[in-house]
């Protein structure tokens, strides 16, 4: 497996800054696909600790996510820190550094009716800062109708902070304590928003701000939609645990105090690019 070394063009950097999102075609070397898909199959069969699963064991109509695998899974760890994806995100953010927050495997089986609700990422997470983003890497082809991502272009600049949305009836109970505005009814008035979406091929990365509103429809296609998203902290990120934030990593797990830069190399490691084929 190797690093693709893919860096964004000037146009892609400008688009990310203005729109809050950009697709980088062929951002990840194909040598990562098979190992990551093997991890996905394992997680579907034997889910880990941090899982959302709308229909356990089903091969259709199943929304499944698993996160925070990198501390225990060598493949995921190496992908996050050695594929070059962190360098790509740092470049787009205009940041000198990128620390890994967590990895997130996302699967929608064919015939999945449930959409991923419109939401921002930042309210779920115990951080503040504008240089915080995700890199959503496709491992299977997907059109928007097959549950690729959609975004409200420019919404990262609204200075809004919305209450987290539940992805399934049983998920994110930990967000109940959050006090915030509800996400606008985007699907009910799409004509009032600048909604854009991206069709993807394996290896394409959709990089987006943690402040942008985004979601995905159900998977109406005939094949599984799989992506692995990594979440990244840039130079201006600060540790900000708050009621309703994700309990994956909490104050008891870190060596930093609220309001400080997340310089905890154990929990939030700095990304490094692979220097040679490995």
Description:
- There is one protein chain.
- By secondary structure, the chain is of the alpha+beta class.
- The longest helix is centred in the first third of the chain and has 13 residues, at 33-45.
- The chain is built from four helices and 13 strands.
- It has a single domain (10-253), classed as Sandwich (Jelly Rolls).
- The strands form three sheets. A seven-stranded antiparallel sheet has the order 1-10-7-12-4-3-2. A four-stranded antiparallel sheet has the order 5-11-8-9, with no helix packed on it.
Features:
about 280 residues; alpha+beta; Jelly Rolls; seven-stranded antiparallel beta sheet; four-stranded antiparallel beta sheet; 4 helices; 13 strands; disordered C terminus
Describe the structure in brief.
The chain is an alpha+beta fold and 278 residues long. The protein is 15% helix and 22% strand.
Count, helices? 4
Query: Which radius of gyration do the C-alpha atoms yield?
Result: 17 Å
| Largest beta-sheet details | 7 strands, antiparallel
Assign a percent range to the helix content: 10-25%
Order of helices and strands: HEHEEHHEEEEEEEEEE
SS-based class: alpha+beta
Morphology: globular
- Low-confidence parts: 273-278
Distance between the termini: 6 Å
- The CATH topology assignment is Jelly Rolls
Q: How many β-strand stretches?
A: 13
Biggest sheet strand order reads 1-10-7-12-4-3-2
- Which oligomeric form is depicted? single chain
Q: If classified by CATH, what would the architecture be?
A: Sandwich
CATH C-level label: Mainly Beta
Mean pLDDT: 90
Supply the number of structural domains: 1
